[in-house]
Design brief:
Keywords: Sigma factor, Transcription, Transcription regulation. With about 190 residues, this protein is mainly alpha-helical. It is about 75% helix and about 0% strand. It folds into two domains: about 110 residues, Rna Polymerase Sigma Factor, Chain: A; about 70 residues, Winged helix-like DNA-binding domain superfamily/Winged helix DNA-binding domain (Arc Repressor Mutant, subunit A). It is built from eleven helices and no strands.
Length: about 190
């Protein structure tokens, strides 16, 4: 078994998904071991309710197990981690919708953190200093809408549910953010 574990550790997430698609439980365990801490942290940044986070995490990995075979990101150049986060983000929005229907709105943490998130550091590394400064100069309410829509790839409706604001407010803030960035960069 140590040889199997070592060989699985050498595979990237895309290769693990291909093995999961063939029903490889060890590959699934390795993917979970490797990605669940990262995914839990990202979910907790968006939802303070540990029960919701646990449910979303479970639903996400259930989808991975069931649909890894239909996932075509590896042949189209997409990221396995991106696919995993997309599933989790959509499951989180679904959980918020269920809660809203039950008249219990979950406590949502704002996106303001003391230390920058990994995706923010990666984004900052891939953009020039002017754009980085323009993004940092945006008011927090505009940055959080951009973060949800651009970094997390959520729709206007999903961002609305995630942030607990009307869709019109999301659209207005996204437009204000784009205008502010254009002005700062021109």
């Amino acid at each position: 078994m140590p040889d199997v574990r070592r060989s699985l550790e050498e595979l990237d997430e895309g290769a693990l998904l291909r093995r999961i698609a063939r029903g490889d439980r060890r590959a699934f365990d390795e993917l979970y071991r490797r990605t669940s801490p990262w995914l839990t942290v990202r979910l907790r940044r968006r939802c303070a309710d540990d029960d919701v986070v646990a449910d979303v995490l479970q639903e996400t990995y259930l989808v991975v197990w069931r649909s890894a075979g239909s996932q075509t990101h590896t042949s189209t150049g997409g990221s396995a981690l991106g696919w995993l986060w997309t599933i989790a983000a959509h499951r989180l929005v679904d959980a918020f919708r269920r809660r809203a229907r039950q008249r219990r709105v979950p406590a949502v943490q704002t996106f303001e953190t003391v230390a920058p998130a990994a995706e923010e550091e990666a984004l900052a590394g891939g953009i020039d200093a002017d754009l980085e400064q323009a993004l940092l100069a945006l008011p927090p309410e505009l940055r959080q809408v951009l973060r949800a829509m651009v970094l997390d790839g959520l729709t206007t409706r999903e961002t609305s549910v995630l942030l607990g604001m009307p869709e019109g407010t999301v659209k207005t803030r996204a437009r204000r953010a784009r205008i502010a960035l254009r002005r700062a960069l021109s």
